[in-house]
Design a protein that fits this description.
- By secondary structure, the chain is α/β, with parallel strands linked by helices.
- The chain is built from 20 helices and twelve strands.
- 62% of the residues lie in helices and 10% in strands.
- It has a six-stranded mixed sheet. Strands 2-1-4-5 form a four-stranded antiparallel sheet, with no helix packed on it.
- β4 and β5 form a beta hairpin.
- It binds adenosine-5'-triphosphate.
- Adenosine-5'-triphosphate binds next to α11.
Length: 581
């Protein structure tokens, strides 16, 4: 919690001003009952029927009370405005920091938190913290100030009667302690249930078509309903208990007033200068003291609740990032060629028992095409993901032009690469924006040539606004093949040294696949690393690496492998005709 509150540091002067305003307000609030007491005694003259009301005094004290109230309102408005502004700015800073941190996450850290939980943490949890900061700014000074002030003034009015307050305050604190002992542990559970609800809703919405096609709407709805019921039941339970808080407090306040009036008028009035004005003031101070203890208890209660959200947010911010830039990075040489080398690389997923890649060694020559093939789950995507350091190899070395990629800044490393993921990913915005995503020159000719090579130009031109056509969020208004081609065009427009195609041609028809690869070979002289399922996509590659259960079982050209590698032969025979073989 304290660590999260450090994000308030840039606003320390604002916070101090709020505290000063709140203290002034509390001071004015404490003056009011005293002035009321004077007004009653000196103005109305209650308790002595022989004295006429002193209208001048009533006016004087009434105006004094009005002035104090107006000032208090002004301070409250200004401090309220500042509290909202500071807490909103605090939330923005925190959200920005969380987002910045998540951006540095490797896939390992993303797997650790899960996307849904990261969304809840950066929205709901930060919102909770914003609310708490807002409330704390107001109460952290007000509550102790009012509590001490109200009790001191009560004692000054009548030490014996003010003992009643201790009974009221103890009952209040006991009542609140019971309520919060029951509810607090449930708050943590509540955040977890929100995570779960988010996860299920997200899963269901992104797989909506599959859900419909398999007529499992009811089953899915039931799963969401289950999560939502759990959250609902818990919310109802917590709110039911919390709803007892205000009425009980009202009861305690009422009983305290009653006791003061009864005991005061019966036993103490007229003794030792205890007059009706003092009794009224004492009543008002008691109310304020009870309120103050209510605020104080709420602070103690809110802090653990906020601490839960703060902990979840700080977990993200403090997550040790596995993949960091080296302290003393090597600058990218100017004349890079783009040779990629794996030297005895082994990789194990964090929670897995066995490595998915073992002792991988190969060299992908600069400017040549190296392809990876193997059965599903053989480790092709994992291998290719190690090159941009999306995952960190467990042992061995990966080099580009002889430089260990660990010795490069990640930004430099990524600047050498055009990465096309298995699932074409597009962003909301124009086609142009998507293609020129990594091209800092924003050159239209580059865009058009990239689209031509990627076989995307024809369908782009058929669209009403051509390159300005709007891509909806997640690229849902283009087909799978179009999405892949636009992703490929994006990599080409970046003009990288090394291309990484992670099964990026799978949604293309045979003809388009052929044309695209032909143009890639003719026009692009960079190093190409291609993961593919189809032999036809890679048969002309300069080198083909065959993977089986995470190890290399064959290396060579199509013809060499057909002769020497049984796994390759098996894949080829399942895909090619006898003549092609
Ligand atoms: N994030 C992950 N955490 C743990 N294990 C994983 C993770 N991703 C993949 N795996 C496991 O690693 C192995 C290799 O997966 P990978 O995706 O690299 O295979 P692939 O050859 O690319 O498969 P495909 O051709 O089906 O895409 C599989 O057994 C898979 O279950």
């Amino acid at each position: 919690m304290i660590k999260a509150l450090k994000f308030l540091k840039p606003y320390k002067w604002g916070v101090l001003l709020v505290f000063a305003l709140v203290a002034l307000r509390a001071f004015l609030d404490l003056l009011l009952p005293m002035i009321l007491g004077w007004l009653v005694n000196e103005g109305i003259g209650l308790g002595d029927a022989t004295i006429d009301p002193n209208i001048a005094k009533i006016w004087e004290y009434a105006l004094l009370m009005l002035g104090a109230t107006i000032l208090s309102i002004i301070f409250t408005i200004i401090s309220g405005y500042m509290e909202s502004k500071i807490s909103a700015a605090f939330a923005v800073d925190l959200r920005r920091a969380v987002y910045k941190k998540i951006e540095q996450f490797s896939l390992r850290e993303m797997d650790h938190f899960t996307t849904s939980s990261l969304i809840t943490r950066s929205t709901n949890d930060i919102q909770q913290l914003q609310n708490i900061v807002n409330t704390l700014l107001r109460m952290v000074i007000l509550a102790p100030f009012l509590a001490v002030g109200a009790i001191a003034f009560s004692i000054a009015q009548h030490p014996t009667l003010s003992m009643l307050l201790s009974v009221s305050i103890i009952s209040l604190v006991v009542m609140l302690a019971i309520i919060f002992t029951i509810t607090l542990p449930r708050f943590q559970l509540m955040q977890k249930l929100i995570d779960k609800l988010n996860l299920r809703t997200r899963e269901n919405l992104s797989g909506l078509r599959v859900v419909r096609a398999y007529n499992t709407q009811e089953f899915q709805a039931q799963r969401i309903d289950e999560a939502s019921q759990e959250s609902k039941n818990l919310n109802i339970f917590v709110n039911r208990i919390m709803s007892m808080m205000w009425p009980t407090m009202g009861l305690i306040m009422g009983l305290t007033s009653l006791a003061i009036v009864y005991l005061g008028s019966r036993y103490f009035i007229g003794i030792d200068g205890f007059d009706p004005g003092s009794m009224m003031a004492l009543m008002q101070y008691s109310m304020r003291a009870i309120m103050a203890f209510m605020f104080l208890t709420m602070i103690f209660i809110m802090i653990p609740r906020a601490a839960i959200s703060a902990k979840r947010v700080m977990e993200v911010l403090e997550m040790e990032i596995e993949i960091n830039d080296p302290e003393d990075p090597i600058a990218l040489p100017k004349d890079m060629k783009g040779e990629v080398e794996f030297d005895n690389v082994t990789f194990k997923y964090p929670d897995a028992h066995a490595p998915v890649l073992s002792n991988i060694s190969f060299k992908a020559a600069a400017g040549k095409t190296t392809a990876f093939i193997g059965s599903t789950g053989s480790g092709k995507s994992t291998l290719i993901n190690l090159i941009p350091r999306f995952y960190e190899r467990t042992s061995g070395t990966i080099k580009i032009d002889g430089i260990d990629i660990k010795k490069l800044r990640q930004e430099d490393l990524h600047s050498t690469m055009g990465y096309v993921p298995q699932k074409g990913i597009l962003f909301g915005g124009s086609i142009k924006g998507n293609i020129l995503f990594g091209n800092t020159d924003y050159d239209d000719n580059v865009m058009i040539e990239a689209a031509q090579i990627a076989q995307a130009e024809t369908f782009i031109q058929e669209m009403e606004d051509g390159y300005e056509h709007n891509i909806s969020q997640g690229g849902t208004n283009v087909s799978g093949g179009q999405r892949q081609r636009l992703s490929i065009a994006r990599a080409i427009a970046k003009n990288p040294l090394i291309y990484i195609f992670d099964d990026s041609f799978s949604a293309l028809d045979y003809q388009t696949d052929q044309k695209l690869r032909k143009l890639l070979d003719e026009k692009i002289k960079a190093t190409k690393l291609i993961v593919a399922q189809r032999i036809n996509t890679i048969r002309y590659a300069d080198q083909i690496i065959v993977l089986d259960q995470g190890t290399i079982v064959g290396k060579g050209t199509h013809h060499e492998l057909l002769k020497s590698c049984s796994v390759y032969q098996e894949i080829a025979s399942s895909q090619l005709s006898k003549e092609e073989m």
